[in-house]
Amino acid sequence: MVIQMTEPRVEPWLRGTRSEVDPVLRAILHALELAAEDAARWCDGLNGDEMEARPLGLPSVGFQLRHIARSLDRLLTYAENQPLTERQLHLLKTEEEFVDREATLMEFAEAIEVSTRRLLSFSEKSYGQARTVGRKRLPTTVAGLLVHCADHTQRHIGQAVTTAKAVLAMRTK
User: Does residue 151 fall inside a structural domain?
Assistant: First the structure.
């Protein structure tokens, strides 16, 4: 099966949106918007078995979507200078566990929406503030965490799209 691109689309960063937001935060928000669009385009059509399939041993689409959702929550918690909760730590350990297709898609969509609201609470003035990450309290800044929200999300949505394409290609075999 050959997966064909439909009409060319304009990515969020080229749409002229979010002009009221500083350029750094705008880029981060656009990265999350693009991830949501890519997930809708490539992952929404998968059934539950396909969402959890691991072709060639790749991590499943479901895992990638849950990991994005839960990582965004953890990264933003660190950026807000708060400790992780017991619930966040529990969810970290269960990212590979399949609940169901709809729950996974809903968790991802809600995480993008909630993360967008949380991101909008940061100001340029906070970017240089020191933060730490994890049990080892590794050093970073608010800006480091916010930018990582974008690059981490894009990395994992790319992996989800690649896996989804492999799963879709297997439909014809």
Answer: yes
What is the tally of structural domains in the chain? Answer: 1
Please indicate, yes or no, if residue 15 is contained in any of the structural domains: no
- The torsion of the CA quartet 90, 115, 142, 38, rounded to 10 degrees, works out to 100
Phi, psi of 17 (to 5 degrees): -90, 165
For the chain, the residue count is 173
Asked if residue 12 belongs to a domain, the reply is no
pLDDT tens digit at each of 173 positions of the chain? 334 445 568 999 999 999 999 999 999 999 999 999 999 999 999 999 999 999 999 999 999 999 999 999 999 999 999 999 999 999 999 999 988 999 999 999 999 999 999 999 999 999 999 999 999 999 999 999 999 999 999 999 999 999 999 999 998 76
Q: Model pTM greater than 0.85? A: yes
Instruction: Give me the domain span that covers residue 29.
Output: 20-170
CATH number at residue 155: 1.20.120.450
Enumerate residues 6+ apart whose C-beta is below 8 A from 164: 42, 43, 46, 50, 61
Tell me how far CA of residue 153 lies from CA of 33, 69, 80, 149, in angstroms.
10, 9, 18, 6
Residue type, 76: L
Q: Is residue 1 part of a domain?
A: no
